[in-house]
Amino acid sequence: MARIQTDKDISRKEVIIKASAKLFREKGYKAASMRDLAVKVGVEAASLYNHIRSKAELLHDICFDVANVYFEHMSMVETMDAAPLVKLEVLLRFHIKQMIENFEEVYVSDREWRYLAEPYLSNYQNQRRSYRKRFANVIQQGIEQGQISPIDASTAVLILLHAIGGIESWQRSTHKISGEELEENMLTILIHGVKK
């Protein structure tokens, strides 16, 4: 029987999670099966259960791992001794990099989270709301300090994050600029769009 191939710095479960993120993005969580995942990983479906309990566990791990990374970064930004506009740029750069470097996981956490089971679904929805509120607070501080145009901060967060979600099209493109160029282009557009 084939074994799950890993690099020395990554566990078999991490290989499965990475493969499941790719599968869930390609087929959608509902349509993806454990048999599909086994094919992607190169093992029998039954052997997956030596490392995971269920497909639901994989979605949970993907969503909450991504959420934890974003929350840790937000906490770091909030404690920075920097102007709100600088904090906003740091946040945007981070979101762009995550979409470039961890696309599958970020995509799934943003699009497939609605299939989480309770109580995780409610917990995740609360985390999303909390994160966006904290993001809006950074923008609001910039408005109050005269660095950002007087706009509705919550709406601005939705627009900014939606724009970054558009990196999905860049990921699919066969003729594309580098990730670094994409990041700089997006920052130029997004920061100048809110800057006073």
What do you see in this structure?
With 196 residues, the protein is mainly alpha-helical. The chain folds into two domains: 12-48, Arc Repressor Mutant, subunit A; 55-194, Tetracycline Repressor, domain 2 (Orthogonal Bundle). Helix content is 71%, strand content 0%. The protein contains ten helices and no strands. Helix 1 (12-27) crosses helix 6 and helix 4 (55-78) packs across helix 6. The termini are far apart. The relative contact order is 0.12.
CATH architectural category of the largest domain:
Orthogonal Bundle
Taken as a percent bin, the fraction of beta residues is under 5%
Main beta-sheet strand count, sense and barrel state: none
Rg on CA atoms, Å: 19 Å
CATH level-1 class of the largest domain: Mainly Alpha
Counting structural domains, the number is: 2
CATH topology of the largest domain: Tetracycline Repressor, domain 2
Would you spell out the secondary-structure blueprint of this structure?
Layout: H1 12-27, H2 34-41, H3 45-48, H4 55-78, H5 84-101, H6 103-111, H7 120-144, H8 153-165, H9 167-172, H10 179-194
Helix pairs in contact: 1-2, 1-4, 1-6, 4-5, 4-6, 4-7, 5-6, 5-7, 5-8, 5-10, 7-8
